[in-house]
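## Example pair
The file below holds two records. Each record gives the amino-acid sequence first, followed by its C-alpha cell line.
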Amino acid sequence: MMKIYNTMTRQKEEFKTIEPGKVRMYLCGPTVYNYIHVGNARSTVAFDTVRRYLEYKGYEVNYVSNFTDVDDRIINQAIEEGVSTKEIADKYIDAFTEDTGKLNVKPACVHPRVIDHIEEIIEFVEALIEKGFAYESQGDVYYRARKFKNYGQLSNKSLDELEVGASQRTGSEQDKKEDPLDFALWKAAKEGEVSWNSPWGAGRPGWHIECSVMVNKHLGTTIDIHAGGQDLEFPHHENEIAQSEAKTGETFANYWMHNAYLTVGESGEKMSKSLKNFVTAHELMEEVDPEIVRFALAKTHYRHPMPFNEVIIKEATSNLSKIKSSLNNTLFRLEQAEKSLEDDQDYLNELKQIKEQFEKGMDDDFNAANGITAVYSLVKWLNAYLEKNKVSQVVLEQSVALLTTLMAVFGLDLGKKEMLDEEIEALIEERNAARKNKDFKRSDDIRDELKEMGIILEDTSQGTRWSRA
C-alpha cells in the first residue's frame, strides 16, 4: 500500500487515484526570468523521481508543469536587458529545458505557458465575479479571501494570523481592496508593461489565478497530486485552492506535496535568489557531472531539508562510482558465466527481497533515502555474489535488470549506451549530406537523435563541432 504525506491533513494517507491506474499530477514550474538555482532544481528532480516511481508501479501519469511567463520579475528583467518579456521568457525556458535535460528530468506531458491562457484566465475571473467571490476596483480585480470558508487550511494559518500579516502591507494597492486579506486576480496595466484587453481594461493576470486555470484546462477540476516547493504553501497554493474551489465547487487536489528547502552554510538558511546565497544549476553543472548532481538531489527524502555543500557532492560521487563499478564487474563476469546453476532460485529469492525492500521504502511517502539504501544493499549483495568461482547468467542478468531499473527511478540511466566518436562523426557526415540535399527533416532528426544521446552540435563557418553534454 502506497502512502503520501498530505500537507492539507498533515498526515500520511493511503494513495487512491481518481481513475484506476491513472494519476493527474501538477507541479508548479519556474518563473522564467533567470537560470534556476540548485534549490529550484531540487524540487524539479524530487517530483520527477515521484513521477518515475509512480510509473514504475504501473500508473499512467499525466504530468503537467507550467512556465510562469507573465510576472513582475520578468517585466523588470526585460526592462533591464532592453528586450521584450517574451524574449526573456523564451531565453530562460530554453535554459530550463537544457539544465533539466542534463539532469535527466523527463519533460512534462504538457508545459503550459500563461500567455497561451489569457482568454481562459479572463473567463475564470468573470465566473468568480458572478459568484460574488471577486470584485473590480479601479481596473484591478481582487478575490474576497474571507468569503472562502476554508481559507488558511493548507498553510495551517488562522484568519487572525493572516490578517495581521496582511495589515502590515502598505501601498496604493491596499487602498483598492475591501479587505487587506484580498489578493489580486487581475492587475491593471502600468505604462510600458505587457498587457491584454479585458472587461476591466488593459491588464494582466495575477500569479495565483494562472496555475488554477492551467490545472483546470489540462488536468480537470479535481486532480490527484498538486506539488511544489515548501515556500508555495502560502500564499500561492492557498490562493489556488480558494479560487478553484469557489469556481467549481469541487475539491481542487486530493493530495498536496511540498518539498523542503535546500540549505546552505552552517546556519542552514534556505537557498534563494532573494537571499543571494544561491548557485545556479547551470553554473554547478559546468564543474560537476550532471549525473552526480542528479544523484545527490534525488537520493534525499523530498520532505527533509537538504544541505548543499562539497561533502554532499563528494559522497554522491563516491557512491555512484561504487554502483557503476559493481555494474561493470557484473557485465564483465556475465560474458563467462554459466547459463544456470542449481542454487539460482535461492539467489533470485534474495533479489526479490531486495526489490521488496526498495518498494517498501518508496511506498512510504516516496522515501528516497530508504529506497537508495535498498540499492546499496543490492550492490553489496552483488559484489559478494561475484566473488564466487562460478556465477550464473540467470542471476547476473536479473541483477543487472534490477539495478538498472531501480536506478532509473532516481533518474540515473546506467544502461544508457554511450556513443563512440566514430559513430558520432558518421552521423554528422550523414547530416551534412542531408543538409546539402535540402533534406532538412533528416538533418533535424539526426540532431535530435544525437541530442538524446547527450551529444550537442554547433554549426560554425569552419564546420560542425560536437561535444558531450
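Second record, same layout:
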Amino acid sequence: MNILVLNCGSSSLKYQLFRMPEENVLIRGGIEKIGSDDAVHSFKTEGPEGGESVSTVQILDHREALSLVLQAVTHDSGVLAGVEEITAVGHRVVHGGEQFALSTLVTEEVKAAIRANAELAPLHNPANLQGIEAIEDVLPRVPQVAVFDTAFHQSMPPEHYLYPIPYVLYQRHKVRRYGFHGTSHRYVSSRVPFLVHRDLMNLRVISCHIGNGASVTAIQNGRSIDTSMGMTPLEGVMMGTRSGDLDPSLQEYITRKEELTQEEFLSMLNRHSGLFGISGLSGDMRKITEARAKGSARSALAFDMYEYRIRKYIGAYVAAMNGVDVLLFTAGVGENSPLLRRKICDHLTYLGLELDVQANESAKGERIISTPSSRVTVCVIPTNEELMIARDTQLLVSGLESWRK
C-alpha cells in the first residue's frame, strides 16, 4: 500500500510517500513560495540509490503544486511507475473543532466541517482544504483521510478546556480550548513505553513540542488532559514569532496607543512577537543561541523568557497530574537544543530530576537523557507526524477496502 502524506500551508506543501505496512519512506519533499514565479521544489528519494533534486519553477496554486508532486513521485524519481499506484492520501488538518476526536475518511460533510472551522485556524484550514480539493481534481478516485491536530486533545475534561467566561459563549460559539500539535504529542507519547519499559496507561507524561510553534501537553494514562495552546495556536508558551499568553486588556491599550486595527494587532502577536519580537533578530532558536553566545543582551533575554515560560507550564502540569513520571522533548528546538533542555531541567531538581549532561549533549535519536537514579525520566523523541498520518490512513483505508469486499 502506497500512501501519500500531505501537509499544505498557505504557500507551501510538504509531502512524504510511505510504503505501508512496512513504514518505509520512498520519497520526501516540499514546495515553498506557491503562487510565485520562483517557487522552490526540493525532494529526496530514500534507499541506497537515493538522490536529491532542487528546482525553481513557476507554481500558481496548490493544484499545480500537486501535479508537480505527482510528477516527482513517478517520472522524476521513478519511485512509482504511475499515479495509479497511490493507494490513498492522508492530510494534516489543523483544526477539527469538537466534531473530530479521531482521524476520518474525507467526505463532503468532513470538508464542510473543515471549512466551518477555518475561522478558528485561518492560516491553516483553508490551505489544508485546498490540498484535499486539489487531490480530488488530480486523483478523483483515490480515498483521502483527514488527520486533525486537535483530535488528540478531545479527551480533555470540561473543567480543563472551558474558559472562565459566560457559559453561553461556549453554547453559542463553542469558545473553548482545543489544543494543537495533537498528532505529534500522540506519536511521541506512543514511543515512551519503548524507552522506559513501562505501560503508558500507568504513566504521567509531560510532552514538550518545541519548534517555531510550541505547546506543552499533560498526558495521563495515555490521554491528553490539558495542553497549553487554546482555541487558536496563539495561546500558551512563548514561541518563535507568537506571543503566547497575554493580558487580554493589552489589545485595547496597544491598539489605541499604536493606532492599530484588530487585524494588525493579531498579526503582531502571530508574526512579530515571541523570540523575534524580544530579540529583534529572529524567531529561529539557532540564531538566538548564536547571538546570545556573542553577548547580545536582547537575545539572552529572549532565550530566558522562552525557557521560563516553558518551565512554568511544566510546573503547572506537574500539579495537574499530582506528579510526573516522564518529561519528553520533541520538535525542532526540543530535539536539537541541548542548552534549552539543560536550562529547563536545571530548575526542576525539586522533582528529583537528574540530567545526564553527557547524554543530553552528545546523543542522537530517541534516547533517555536523565541519570538512572533520576526520579523523573527525561527523554528526547524525534517527532514523526507524517508516519502517524500514514498509519491512520492505512487503518481507515484498509477498513474501507474490507467493507467494499
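Notes on the second record: The radius of gyration is 22 Å. The domain at 198-385 is CATH 3.30.420.40 (Nucleotidyltransferase; domain 5).
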